[in-house]
Amino acid sequence: MTEQKALELLDLEPGASASEIRRAYQEIYNELQIRLTNAPTEHQKELYRKRLAAVEEAYLFLGGESEEDLSELPSMGPVENTSEEKAQAFKPQHLSEAAALELLGISKPFSRGKLIDAYKDKKEGFEKGIKVAPNNEIKNAFQKSLVDLENAFSLLEPLAERPTPVPPKPEPSKSKPEKKKASPLLWAIPALLFLAAGIWFYLTKGEKRDEISQEVKEEFIKVKSQADLLAEKQYWDQALEKYEEAYGLLADTEVGDSMRSIGQRLEAMALDAKAEEQALAWAIAQRANSTSAYEDFINKYPSGTYTAQAEQKIRDLEANSERKAAEQQQRWREAEEQRRRDQAEVEEQTRKKQAESDRRITEEAELLRREAEVVSSKPIEEVTNEIYDKPEVLPTFPGGLASFSHYLSNNLVYPTLARNIGVEGIVYVKLIIDTDGSIQDVELLKGIGAGCDEEAIRVVQNSPKWNPGMVKGRPVKVRMNLPIRFKLS
Predict the structure, then answer these.
(1) Is 46 a domain residue?
(2) Which long-range contacts (CB under 8 A, 24 or more apart) does 290-297 make?
(3) Which residues does 121 contact at the CB level (< 8 Å), separation at least 6?
(4) Which of 360, 377, 394 is a domain's end point?
(5) Can you say whether residue 105 is alpha, beta or left, with left for phi > 0 and alpha for psi between -120 and 50 degrees?
(6) Based on the domain organization, do 62 and 189 belong to the same domain?
(7) Whole-angstrom Cα distance, residue 296 to residue 287?
(8) d(Cα 370, Cα 387) in Å, to the nearest integer?
(9) Interatomic CA distance for residues 195 and 197, integer angstroms
């Protein structure tokens, strides 16, 4: 092994100090030990064992020439940190907002519920790692991650949207965390690992094994380890690039074909995920069944599978809306015509009733006139109690009939009941004008009801004194009939 190769395996620069070499070895050894413990297949475990052996060889090459230097390290794990290094490891570190978001695996904006779920998931994983850690160094690494997790939660908690009334640092509960939609690449990575391991197994076991130099194999292991680390941290795009770089080192036609097959599979999985997402959005739009919902779908998927159907749905909804508007307009016109017919019928009935009322009033007035003529045709001597019905000079209201009409318009109060029910007509009262012109013995001769009769009697009783009637130059009592008209304006 050369110094350059040893430095590359430990990810060091030339001139690194002994402490830097030792620490780099510890970190890489810890990571590879965790991967070896969690490897799903025996073949992958064998690859990690080879990687560990290469790292140990690089460490011996750079750190010493004897087994005594390596004896201080655990046989299956890195050496223990000094007390000063442990104190430094557990010293609270200031986290930036970006680092806190990355640690919890979330992005802005985020709700408090989403933050709590991410915190619970990460905490459960770190606590499980502490329990199953094969040595103290790995356990310390998990404990430090747990401290960083607490700091990240405290930093992000005030930034959460619509906080819910829960304790600042929630305890893990049995409630099932919200299911998150995984990236299509998440499912592609295991398939890529499986296929890559198979290719490597074939290449190492088959006839092409001798064609691949030891140097290429070591470089392959290094790049693939970097890809494994990126995949564990869920940096899917970067991990895929590293995998392609690792297997590209083999420069084998069959490997290249296999990688292209993996790329095609990833692309197909991504297309399937997009199709599933589009189908879900289409189902939501159909449930809403509104123009705005279909327009939102078209804006999001202008060339989608269901775009033509969405456009047809919009046309159908608009046509249906226009039809309903036309039907509503027709119903309104029919209702307006019916209202006009009803109004005309009411007006006709009112007109007929008014004509009939006027006819009866005319007949009654004519009857009263005839009765008055009969009375007036009798000699004055036949009138009893010295009350004249037709004296030589009739009584008059001061100022004449015009003044009496003005008096009525200023003092007559239209009854509320009569106004509300639309009662109109003429109330006839009879009265006696005394020799001094005062009004006496006011009585109802013919009324129309609804309070109009009482109001007519009141306004006549309160009338100012009249000029009395005269017979042979002297004032006499005169009996008169007065019509009082009630007319709604």
Answers:
(1) yes
(2) 290/317, 291/317, 291/318
(3) 105, 177
(4) 377
(5) left
(6) no
(7) 13
(8) 19
(9) 5
pLDDT (mean) for 87-99: 63
**Sequence-ordered list of residues with C-beta below 8 angstroms from that of 152, at least 6 positions apart, any chain:** 95, 99, 100, 101, 103, 104
- Measured between alpha carbons, how far is 59 from 79 in angstroms, rounded to an integer? 13
Q: Could you tell me the residue range of the domain that residue 144 belongs to?
A: 3-159
Q: What one-letter code names the amino acid at 4?
A: Q
Helix, strand, coil percentages for the chain (3-state, nearest 5): 65, 10, 25
- The pTM of this model reads 0.26
Q: Are 469 and 332 found together in one domain?
A: no
Q: What is the pLDDT of residue 460?
A: 93
230 in any annotated domain: yes
| Dihedral sign computed on CA atoms, order 53, 57, 60, 65 | positive
Cα distance between residue 474 and residue 398, in whole Å? 18
Confidence band (pLDDT; 50, 70, 90) for 196? low
- Look at 65-79, 443-457, 459-473 and tell me which has the smallest mean pLDDT: 65-79
Question: Of the residues 227, 261, 288, which one is the last residue of a structural domain?
Answer: 288
Token pair recorded at residue 276: 């599933």
